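Limitations

Structures in this collection are predictions, not experimental determinations, and the ligand pose is part of the prediction. Treat each record accordingly. The example that follows, with zinc ion as the small molecule, is included so readers can see exactly what is and is not provided: the inputs are given verbatim, and the output is the predicted complex.
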Amino acid sequence: MAMGALGGAACTPPPASQTPHLLLVSIDTLRADHISPAGYRRDTTPGLDRLAAQSVVYTHARTHAPWTKAAMASLFTSQLPIDHGLTRWPLTVAPEIPQLPEILHEAGFRTWAVTSHNAFDPDFNEFHHGFEVFDVSVWEGRCPETIQTAHRVTDLALQAWNTLDDGSEDPIFLWVHYFDPHDTYFHHDEVVDFGTGWANAYDEEIAWTDRELSRLLAAVEGRRDVVVAVVGDHGEELGERGYWGHAITLFEEQLRVPLLLKAPGLQPRVESAAVSLMDVPPTLLQLLDVEPPPTFHGRSLLPHPVPREHYAETDLRRFGRAVVSGDHKLIRTEEGQQLYDLATDPLERDDLAAAHPERVAALEQLLSRVYSTR
Ligand SMILES: [Zn+2]
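Predicted complex:
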């Protein structure tokens, strides 16, 4: 694959015939609109800013489920939750569905994970498939919501990277999951105090996580043989609808996630087209020159995203289904349907369902194709 052709003529190709390494960072509960590269009013993420200057920044990436396990399973399988089967907390991904770490391990990558969420506990889940090392020592059986984890995550991830980066020709896949933007919120003397209240405390945790992520990113700074992907699993409601948290609704504050992609030969740019979490794994495999399996339902975002519908669902705290098609979004809940024009009403305040029944019917038809059982 001609890597230099992906992003434009100004790129420098990676060293010939060397498969790049992959550093995949997922950050829990990180809203897309609370990071500096998205134009947030606060400088919450100077580390992500530096990465963004060297990356393709996808400003309209959405998750398929507003809670960790379902979303991360989509990131690993390139399938919707209704297809990979992890739609409720105790369920797991069907073992016959290949996951990104397994695919990379089979392709010759040395694989290591540092996780900070009990959602990935290997005793009860199936996220560890394909990893030679699956480090859950950060939380060690304690509820991750009760402890600060980002500093320890970075320490362990740096140890992992330094162990793996030994000059071997075999490429590295390191997955690192940060938890701290998830509540409970802690105060951190090391970062800006944004003030009291839920939203301010949330931003402080983002700044703290970014500070720790920066220490990890420094280890690969300037490397032309490393693909770096940073992605969120879901967003967070901060009282917009009267709730605080996630897995509650399918509004944009819970669905929109950060997505930054830095790769050898990939020209930095801002990509405003709508993209889906399930498109990330085929994109990564393209960058790593690994063939995606036929079970992947997502499409590579390179060289440019192809417009298509985005689907999202939740069965965790409430029932919901949603489809985004172009500028229009239909949300179906137990209470009925809501239609929004995201171009003119990005905060989803003006429900157009009653005024545009024909648009509702067209989007409902799309939803019914995917979610035929509900
Ligand atoms: Zn999460």
